[in-house]
TrEMBL record:
Cellular component terms per the entry's GO annotation: plasma membrane
Keyword Membrane: yes
Protein name as annotated: Melatonin receptor type 1B-B-like
UniProt cross-references to InterPro entries, sorted A to Z: GPCR_Rhodpsn (IPR000276), GPCR_Rhodpsn_7TM (IPR017452)
Gene source species: Brachionus plicatilis
Subcellular location: Cell membrane
Transmembrane segments: 40-70, 82-107, 119-141, 162-187, 207-233, 254-275, 281-307
Keywords associated with the record: Cell membrane, G-protein coupled receptor, Membrane, Receptor, Transducer, Transmembrane, Transmembrane helix
Lineage: Eukaryota, Metazoa, Spiralia, Gnathifera, Rotifera
Length: 343
């Protein structure tokens, strides 16, 4: 009750951080080329981040999925969960971001006679976003069990059990999106972000449910898992000499970096989502936080390549395997020539 009262006071105060926004004019056609010229810098920045997310999210997530599927070295339960996460992130970065761009450029008129489409987009957005964080939580648990309780790992993350566990984040995402279809909240064209999403003005209670159950609580669990891994590695660092164990720690670092990015990308959105229940904050608050929230789904492949030598090698093998034969031949010839020169 105290927290609800505090947030209610914040959302109704004349904050110096954000300019108050006038009520929406029903005679204005929101979105579209003419409309965004009124705040061109803001929406150009939003579109730039959105197109960045579409391009790099598609390439990075597709590379991750295909590299793991076609590499026998990566045929392990922990990598299956990474594929599961990448599938969710691929849909956010490519599908949802594409419709966000359409919403800005085509405007509200595009969705006036396509209300079911707008609802589907908002529903899918919640499914994919919920599944993404729950997959990150599942990966944190996987790394915690593997590094800190290795004797239990094969029992908890056997092949069959991991396949079942990979279904749970999707069920959780569906459970997150369904209440809006049954009247607790809703989906609509957001006149600030100019995109189809969950209607934050319809039910503040759903906003609390979404942010605290599907963002804050999983983030706390993930943080605890990685904190325990950190203490374990610090305590037994001198005894961890096995090369395979070091690879597990490398992977844990990449996944922790992914989580940190998720946290800092999504927490501002969650805060604004709750306090802007009355739609009084300046559009920039929602536009910027929404753009950064979705950007999170486009950067994980970079962390995998940077921190994990196993995944980096998997990426390289897959890229080389799909290059034209003549290019591979020239490349191997150059490597051979360099090797002979060094000898």
């Amino acid at each position: 009750m105290f927290l609800h009262h505090l947030i209610h006071k914040i959302s109704n105060s004349n904050s110096n951080i954000f300019n108050l926004n006038e009520s929406f004019d029903p005679t204005i056609d929101y979105g579209g080329i003419d409309y965004i010229q009124n705040d061109l810098v803001l929406y150009i920045a939003f579109l730039a981040l959105t197109f960045f997310g579409i391009i790099f999210g598609f390439l990075g997530n597709m590379l991750t999925i295909l590299a793991i599927i076609f590499n026998k070295e990566l045929n392990a339960p922990n990598y299956w969960i990474i594929v599961n996460l990448s599938i969710a992130d691929l849909h956010i970065s490519s599908l949802i971001n594409s419709f966000n761009a359409i919403g800005v450029l085509a405007g509200e008129d595009f969705f006036l006679n396509r209300k079911p489409l707008c609802t589907i987009i908002g529903f899918l957005c919640l499914i994919f976003c919920g599944s993404s964080l729950l997959n990150i939580a599942l990966l944190a648990l996987n790394r915690y069990i593997k590094i800190c309780h290795d004797h239990l790992y094969s029992k908890i993350f056997s092949k069959k059990k991991t396949m079942f566990l990979c279904i749970l984040p999707w069920l959780g995402g569906i459970a997150l999106g369904t209440p809006n279809l049954s009247g607790w909240g809703g989906y609509d064209y957001d006149k600030k972000v100019l995109s189809c999403m969950t209607d934050r003005t319809q039910s503040q209670e759903f906003g609390f449910f979404y942010i605290f159950c599907y963002v804050l609580t999983p983030c706390i669990c993930i943080f605890v898992c990685y904190l325990k891994i950190f203490f374990f590695v610090s305590k037994y660092s001198g005894k961890i000499g096995c090369n395979s164990h070091k690879k597990q720690i490398q992977l844990a670092k990449s996944l922790f970096a992914s989580f940190i990015t998720y946290f800092f990308c999504w927490m501002p959105f969650g805060f604004i989502y709750i306090i802007d229940h009355s739609d009084m904050l300046h559009p920039a608050a929602m536009v910027i936080t929404t753009a950064f929230a979705h950007i999170n789904s486009s950067v994980n492949a970079f962390y995998y390549a940077y921190f994990s030598s196993t995944l980096r090698r998997g990426f390289y093998k897959f890229i080389v395997s799909v290059l034209p034969y003549n290019f591979n031949l020239v490349n191997s010839s150059k490597n051979s020539h360099t090797s002979h020169a060094r000898n």
